[in-house]
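Replying to the earlier thread about multi-chain prediction with a worked example.

Input:
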Amino acid sequence: MNRDALLELLYMLSNTPGTSGDEIEVRRALRPHLEGHVESLRVDAMGNLIAHKKGTGAHDLRVLLTAHMDEVGLMVVDHTGEGALKVATSGSIDARLLPGLEVRVGPQARPGVIGIKAIHRADEDENVIPVSALTVDIGAHDREEALELAPIGTRITFATTAHPLGQLVAGKAFDDRAGCAALVALLQGPPLPCDVFGVFTVQEEVGLRGARVAGYTVAPAAAFVLEGTIADDLPKEEEGSPTSEIGKGPVLTVMDRSYVADPRLVRLVIQVATAAGIPYQFKQPGIGGTDAGTIHFTREGVPAITLAIPCRYIHGPVALLDPQDLEHTVALLRASLEQLTPEVIQRP
Amino acid sequence: MNTLELIQQLSAAVGPSGREAAVSDVLRPLWEPWSDELRTDAMGNLIALQRGNGAEPRPALMSAAHMDEIALIVTGIEKGFLHVHRIGGTDCRALLGLEVTVHGQEDLPGIIGTRPPHVLSADERGRIVPWEKLFVDVGLPHAEVVARVSIGAPVSIQRPLIRLQNDLVAGKALDNRASVAALTLALQQLRRREHAWDFYAVATVQEEVGAKGALTSAFGLNPTLAIALDVTFGKQADDNGGGTFPLDKGPTIGIGPNFHPQLVQRLRDVAKSEEIPTALEPLPGHSGTDAWSIQTAREGIPCGLLGIPLRYMHQPVETLALRDVERTARLLAAFTASLEADYRPRWEDEQ
Amino acid sequence: MDLELLTQLTQAFGPPGYEEEIRAVIREVVTPLADSVWVDPLGSLVALKRGTGGGKKTVLAAHMDEIGVMVTYVDEKGYLRFTRMGGISPLMHIGGRVRFADGTVGVISVERREDSSKIPALEQLYIDVGASSREDAPVQVGDPAVFMRPLVAQGRRLISKTLDDRVGCYVLIETLRRLGPTPDDLYFLFSVQEEVTLSGARTSAYKIDPDMALAVDVTMTGDTPKALPMAVEMGKGPAIKVQDSGMIAHPAVRDLLIAAAERAGIPYQREILLGGSTDAAAMQLVRGGVPSGCVSIPCRYVHSPSEMVDVTDVEQTVALLSAALAPA
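Result:
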């Protein structure tokens, strides 16, 4: 897939709304890009979209690839007398970002805003306003109208439309629509030596939930998880790890809070990257968690690794990534799968 | 047996997480007449099967209500007094002065006490008593206590059910014996109705310590769908904002990632046609119930959740409305009976 | 007490996910003792001793992995920042040494802080491998390391790093050595990744699908000065677990262990552990549920570089397991 097509896909996926448990629009957006490139496509009981891409038969090896469809957002939990919506977070959102935002409410994508008491009238308080004290205003007259337009359970997402920005691209939900775009790009390519199940998982943001079921259902010999990960390469007071950096290539997880990546897969990816001249970096160990965290302990165990595209400001309304990093991630994934043989992960 | 008597009996049963056998023993004779099969699995979950009348292979609905209660456990014996700690989320702010039963070699009555305020500093007096400073006093000399009580002995709250106005009741372990009662009533009601699906009533273990019984029983039964029954936060004087629900206005129906949207809609539709009042309970993340464990068992199990509003959760004065227990039972039974033999929860975009 | 074996076990390198070295040590010892030996996808080692027939399937698990650290950043001057692999308390490690897989040794120290009366955060510690710059540092981000302390036997006490849980591995090996005929199929599981996720035990138990599971691990004691109250003391015999922060032992399994101890005249203690858990917590929830329990070796200073156990406790743990596994 060329860069323009890849970015167009990324923009389209980024603009699609889909919080945890409500990924239907993302599935709808993905389907046309998968049909014709994979042997089968189905939706499981949790809403995971499972694509089977048969291998060439060179290896008797079943590999699971995942990228999660859900993004962080809000859910309507109550209504005020003035017609405002009270909300709770779906997934973890940095509450500092919320005041002043534009959002989209419900399946009709109604515009809404999050505003707080004017500074002129507010008490001096350095503390962040908790989400429970914030409201979303869609312009409803009163509680009744609010209830009708946005009933309890309605989902709310950031309102960002993806676009280029300098040498980078900006948009919401790059965690993990960037991973989804990369997975689509891989599945659109020629068959691989191994049998591939590409699963677009649900509910990663509320506990790596869909991936667990995907791991059990597919029962693979190995798993590669695609993510959009933290790039903390902003100015700091003290020198320290940036977790990952934009423009330095795909990010490899060696260990995070949810699992230890299989060292044999880490070695493989490093060898492949080095031989192919693809830049790569290590994610700062011990930070965050990904779908590999629940896949690796399904059934008899699954050696796993996470490859991620570095993104600034993930879990906020506008994330940034470098298109080169996205391309390199697709290339590195494909090359690694081409070099993955049963011997790499065979049990001693 | 009417609802009040059922709740009285279930509340009085002693079943701390991990030691639920006594509750199981109370339930078995209550479930047996309404079940085609009744068994206990490896972890102690009690499972009743009421077969449907559809052609085989029949789809199955599993309904789970946890039978364990929060309690205390003996961690040490000092000068004849028992040191205790929690089993599950026991609220140490609401324990002082309570009467308890220590389940040692035999059951011993006891009282939870601490040093009197007169001898404490002003600072200590203003603080909640930490676990290390709480004691259970069984009124016996040290040697006797050591002979009759082992480390690890569970301690349960003694609190016979209290009848309040308006058919409200208060007591211990209504989280979640109220739901077990509802499940029992549903089992009875279903026996008198036609239903195509198999119905599994499961009294699960160890929910209070991580929804463990639900996880393993769901794996074992691998049902087509599951409805969990639990209690939820009732509106009370000091907590009546978002996330709390009025008593005696019917059960809540959970909405959020833990629950299949089609099941949520169907529960609401059935409630409407049965004229059972309900409220939607938004749960954007971890639902804190058995449904959370059940949903990701095996290849995924579509779930729903019914919640009975309850005040003062995890204190020995948990309060709820008897009518809400009955409404929950009716809704569960009507929902189960409504399921057509070929019904399966689907996603709108499935082919 | 086979001190040579225990020394070899405690000193072998094996942080979570990187257990090759310790696995090779254990594999060599257990292969001649078992009917079948294999390694699971995540790296756990299983040694099966088949029964005479008609019995149950029992898993006995001790974890091979040890706590450690992983490099998160190499600064300009070659100092390393690190994160935990398993439960690490900064207080325990300042001034200590670490060893990387290739043998590189590092010293753990701490930044100068304004308020030195506070316990430093892990982020304020660093490792010095003696490098002069980032470029000539022999280690990189993602490299794991373990703590360094030799084993010392002093009277009836043993002091070493990583008694958690190499002493448990030792107990399993000794139990396997002494095994008599039994109808039961016994799976001796040397699990990986217990210190981070319990994933080794979980997945290996899934594969075995046992009727009962027992973990053998260390537990804390309440017998040191002003310790958190706990009714377990070193030197008073093996501890039979009632519950810990991750699991309630199945009463039937707990009682089976107590009955075996009483039958064989072995002193035992009842254990409630408020902070910490074992492989049994994961094995218990596998498939449709597995009745599980745990036998613990009382251990002072758990997760410090100098853990301490009593030789008699260790020997009696072997005796207790052997009695519990012997046909009734």
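The interface with chain B takes residues 222, 229-231, 242-243, 248-251, 269-272, 274, 284-285, 287-291 of chain C (CB under 8 Å).

Feel free to reuse this layout for your own posts.
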